[in-house]
Specification:
The protein is mainly α and 512 residues long. The protein has 2 domains: 11-250, Growth Hormone, Chain: A; 258-318 and 327-512, Up-down Bundle (Growth Hormone, Chain: A), CATH 1.20.1250. 73% of the residues lie in helices and 2% in strands. It contains 15 helices and 6 strands. The protein has a two-stranded parallel sheet with strand order 1-4. A hairpin with a 2-residue loop joins strand 5 and strand 6 (474-475). The longest helix is centred in the N-terminal third of the chain and has 37 residues, at 65-101.
């Protein structure tokens, strides 16, 4: 019998999952690249209102995988979950296309947008947690090819994220607000390609090492679970549209996400079956999750305030051609593709010399690089009038530094959770880690709303005065002060994590 441990190459199922995920990420990141611009230009929302909608959407995108993972494990299986999620996301993107097609009627467009975002959020909940788990199922336990498989899969994610702003932004971010719909339609087509390719080839290629199909349904879905799905759809639509329909300033989504971020860790850490050592390791996960919130809330400005900044106050002219602002969102995935192998080699060399830092220290370096990116852009805008546009190279430098920070933090964090979590709590703790991402994305929208009125804002009406945002008594009247918020936040978090890294390493009890 052939030894699977020494097999070369990868099963063809990996490349099907690679292709499926690449087009799904194309769809999501393509829509995200133009979303904030669509809100501020086509729907004529203020940067504050647009940022809050953006934060609520991206925050819920990280929350619903808890629901999708639960239903997959109990009823649907991976295949059916991916199909349901993909179809819902394609419908959601098409509703965004219809939203872009009805901007002449603001009320209809807004309602269509809430419907589109709701379906996208629920669809993502089914799709996101299930496709990556199938990668590991293609291989026997202990197969050394699994690490390489996830690296290939990760490249698929970043390829989709790289091309999508170029295509969807190129079609939608043209300066003509009527063109945004074509960007959303391109995202819809990308999702359809993902679903069709998966459905055509899944039976042929998605088999385990024993030749049996993987990701099959567990059992038929009962009425209770169907009610959970339908109830979730209704709840998310209600939460998203609450402020608009009820003319209220109450942030229901914020209460939901931040409340879950407090309650779920408390439930886990107080479980009586945990040993002292397990509780110590879990505490490390929660402490680092807290710092991760600060990282991602500043990093995710890419799709929010930094896109507004790129559009309004960055000189994007190359000769006689002006580059779409949305294209800057391709810099990060391109940087990941180029720099990931270099970082892997660098950590490997340090490991050989017994110099590789522990996970908390790597994550502190990630926060420091994030801070440095904001220092660069703050320097660029210091003393510059809001009507003056800065060179695009400043923004490109920020994105490259942030990409290096991501490579120090993101893959390290996921690996750390899998190592520290007790087996019986593995899925729940990974869900909690993504819950921190939900909180971070929600906070990202809140922080993006602090961007002061500038060159990109609508002109004031007669009798109106500029109202400058403020945070904790600190009024933000210019971009330098705005970027200082992120410098202070990420810088202080980096310093504290550097100081705590030794203590956290001891709490990990030998796990690096």
């Amino acid at each position: 019998m052939e030894n699977t441990q020494v097999q070369k190459g990868h099963p063809k199922g990996l490349y099907l999952l690679f292709f499926t995920e690449m087009w799904e990420r194309f769809s999501y990141y393509g829509m995200r690249a133009i979303f904030i611009l669509f809100l501020t230009k086509a729907l004529v929302l203020s940067s504050k209102d647009a940022s809050n909608i953006y934060g609520s959407f991206t925050g819920l995108v990280y929350l619903t995988p808890l629901l999708g993972g639960y239903l997959c494990d109990r009823f649907l299986g991976n295949r059916r979950s991916i199909f349901i999620g993909g179809i819902l996301m394609a419908i959601g993107q098409f509703l965004m296309f219809l939203c872009g097609n009805t901007i002449s009627s603001p009320e209809a467009a807004t309602t269509m947008m809430w419907a589109g975002l709701t379906v996208l959020i629920i669809g993502n909940g089914f799709f996101k947690p299930n496709i990556s788990t199938m990668v590991g199922q293609l291989y026997p336990k202990g197969d050394r090819r699994v690490d390489g498989a996830f690296t290939i899969f990760y490249m698929g994610i970043n390829l989709g994220a790289f091309f999508s702003p170029l295509v969807c932004g190129g079609l939608g971010d043209t300066g003509n607000i009527a063109d945004f719909k074509w960007g959303f339609l391109a995202a819809c087509i990308g999702m359809i390609v993902s679903v069709i390719s998966f459905e055509i080839y899944k039976n042929k290629y998605l088999t385990g090492p024993d030749g049996q199909p993987i990701g099959m349904p567990v059992k038929k879905m009962d009425m209770k679970s169907l009610g959970i799905v339908l109830g979730s759809i209704a709840l998310i639509f209600f939460l998203l549209s609450f402020k608009t329909f009820f003319k209220s300033d109450i942030d229901m989504i914020g209460y939901l996400i931040y409340g879950a971020m407090v309650i779920v860790p408390l439930v886990i850490i107080t479980d009586k079956t945990l040993t002292k050592e397990e509780r110590s390791r879990i505490a490390v996960i929660f402490i680092l999750a807290f710092f991760v919130i600060f990282f991602w809330s500043a990093f995710e400005q890419a799709g929010a305030s930094l896109t507004i900044f790129a559009d309004a106050q960055t000189n994007r002219h190359i000769g006689g051609w002006e580059m779409p602002a949305s294209w800057f969102q391709s810099i990060n995935p391109l940087g990941i593709i180029i720099l990931a192998p270099i970082f892997t080699y660098f950590w490997g060399q340090l490991h050989k010399r017994n110099l590789e830092p522990a996970s908390p220290m790597k994550m502190a370096w990630g926060l420091a690089l994030l801070c440095l990116g904001y220092i660069v852009i703050a320097f660029a805008v210091s003393g510059v009038d809001s009507q003056v546009k800065i060179s695009m190279w400043w923004l490109i430098s920020l994105y490259l530094l942030h990409t290096m920070g991501e490579l120090c933090l993101s893959p390290i964090g996921l690996s750390m959770v899998s190592k520290l979590a007790p087996i019986r709590f593995a899925s729940l703790l990974m869900g909690t880690w993504f819950l921190a991402n939900a909180a971070a994305n929600k906070l990202a929208g809140t922080l993006s709303a602090l961007i002061p009125p500038g060159a990109g804002e609508t002109a004031l009406k007669p009798g109106e005065t500029i109202v400058y945002p403020a945070i904790m008594g600190y009024q933000i009247t210019n971009l330098y002060q705005f970027f200082m918020v992120f410098i202070m936040m990420s810088g202080v978090a980096a310093v504290i994590l550097f100081v705590l890294s030794g203590v956290l390493r001891k709490m990990m009890h030998g796990i690096k």
